[in-house]
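INFO batch 0412 | record 1 of 1 | parsing
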Amino acid sequence: MTLDEQVKYLTKGCVDVIRAADLRARLERAHQQGRPLVVKVGFDPTSPDLHLGHTVLIRKMKHFQDLGHTVIFVVGDFTALIGDPTGRSKTRPPLSREQIADNAETYKTQVFKLLDPEKTVVDFNSRWLGALASEDWVRLAARYNVAQMLERRDFRQRYDKGQPIAIHEFLYPLAQAYDSVFLKTDVELGGTDQLFNLNVGRDIMPSFDLEAQVVMTVPLLVGLDGAEKMTKSTGNYVGITESSVEMFGKLMSISDELMWVYYELLTDDSVEEIEGLKARVNDGNLHPKQAKVDLARRVVTDFHAAAEAEKAAVEFDRVYARGGQPADIPEFRLELAGEWKPLNRIMVDVSMASSASAATRKISSGAVLIDGVKILNRHWKPVSGEYLIQVGRRFARLLVR
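INFO prediction complete | emitting tokens
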């Protein structure tokens, strides 16, 4: 690629690039010196599974990797002990070391579904942050002041409302910034919600006689509902460890408008290629459903295989286009002799919702069918027998005894 093409490829889908001129200069220098850029992304292992929202950032890492740069996947096992205050109205409870270690192992496995394991550096920030002595932390803290910290919207809102801010929360952005210092980062990537943390790294690097890193952010992926950002708590997510059939069906449920956002953030297609697809749909030369099928195939192939994606497409067509049922519906048993559970709790047990509150929202919206009948009462009570539960494009068989 030419330098212009590289900049365009790397900034596709980005919200913030601070600064674009610096990125261009570093790319040009890297080419002249034959030295790849050091590109860093940090993930705190706060939950065991990643979803497609996380992969927007991982895909941007892949783009740098495609151009021969060094990508460092920083597992924030030390920063997770502090707890990221981003988007929090109160202090986040820290995870135990055991939880962090378990989650970190699953992260390492999952990111290689997109990244090349041979070209990816995986490191743990406890390696350098855990080695800092007390006086090192004092010197690090001296490089930033309280007024700067209170420029962060989360902190400012809590301060104005008289809500507590623990002192250790101020250490989080400083610890993340020191990651960049230790690794001598050229570029740090993150979601838009991480902009403050990323800029702290940019701010303090010159005080360590390092050139300020380039900061690039990607948008938070909108979930399947087309309204809220993709999270497990709302149930509007696609997990990257889900089956190919489950993943394909969920992707086919998105709106035609949201489909183009997913094309931009979940594929490597250029802006021109995506605009070309849009034009074909608008001209009537390509049906929107076919464009969505092609998108679902692409995404499923990334996390499974082309053959699995094709099987999922055939299964989707059989079940939804032709009115059939999945060939392999998971079965769950419920004992009437045990404690009675309302429908929203049953839905959690049969993996139809991530939480009771998410299940209640689905019930209230009319998305839950039992034996083909819409159920609007979360206190629905089964009797002995067999029930087919359907939520959108997901099925489960409930065997009640």
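INFO post-check: The chain has three domains: 3-218, 244-321, 331-400.
INFO record closed
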